[in-house]
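Pasting as-is:
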Amino acid sequence: MTKTGAPATARRLLPDAPLLLAARGERPNRQPVWFMRQAGRSLPEYRKLRADQPMLRACMTPELVCEITLQPVRRHGVDAAILFSDIMVPLHAAGVGLDIVPGTGPVVERPVRSASEIMALPVLEPDAVEPVAAAVRLLVAELGQTPLIGFAGAPFTLASYLVEGGPSRHHEHTKALMHAEPDLWHALLGRLAELTLTFLKVQAAAGVDALQLFDSWAGALSQREYRQFVFPHSARVLAGLAGTGVPRIHFGVGTGELLGAMAHAGADVVGVDWRIPLDVAAQRVRAAREHGPIVLQGNLDPAALLAGWPAVEREVLRVIAEGSAADAHVLNLGHGVLPETDPDMLTRIVELVHSR
């Protein structure tokens, strides 16, 4: 039984799923490919479905989550579905006042910067995200042999939104708290690590086949800052998932200089953005790891998909070639699909990758 009182979903057996084979360091018969934000604004069927649905409400409506998650699988034939959700969902479910404002992003009602505010942060109870678990169970029943990836935001990225009150270019309040009051900072990230771990364990118990930890803003940090202030908390989350039996993916934006540290955090797959070639990324991860296969995910530039097909085809083939430096490679973007992307371009990329 899970903490919600619902029995854990029996783990699906997907022995031939290319994504899961690659996550173990094997070379499957075909290269796996999926896209971050594939279930989203680039799809007209998504825009129609979301027309009158606020983001957070949509993320907590199981039938809607199921349909949106399935849309890119039907359209593109990708090798994985990724749960339609948002990194702010567990904070919202726990009771933190926030909204996702169109054109702006997450906005927190009261920024969290003092000891009293940090200590007052609510704890996430598994029952509070039962709608997400229900959506996972619906998807597991619908997806057949296609793996489902669950995800959550990493503690640092969640902390940045809480401390800044919303998106930030320089993360000035976040870094000021980090350096001025390190004990308070670690208390904040400790609470967020626990919240993140609870959310991911709920998804695992409901039946997801892999989990991805997004650290969207980690690239704003120096390597020293990352190792001192962030690494212990991300590592705690990833270590806490070891018993779930599902592959763990760790991805950050602008983290080329942090890949060595991220490789130690405990993920099975290291996501790479477009700013660093995959063969260089493979060298950095290999130099940092003492054992285990080197598995990378990435790293097409999402903006390149707005070019014509000849240019996109060249980029896809280049990324595949560079990815061969790793023991296994999952082709993806170096960040999420841009809203202006032609959905047919994604379909053609999948067809090209599968034809190799």
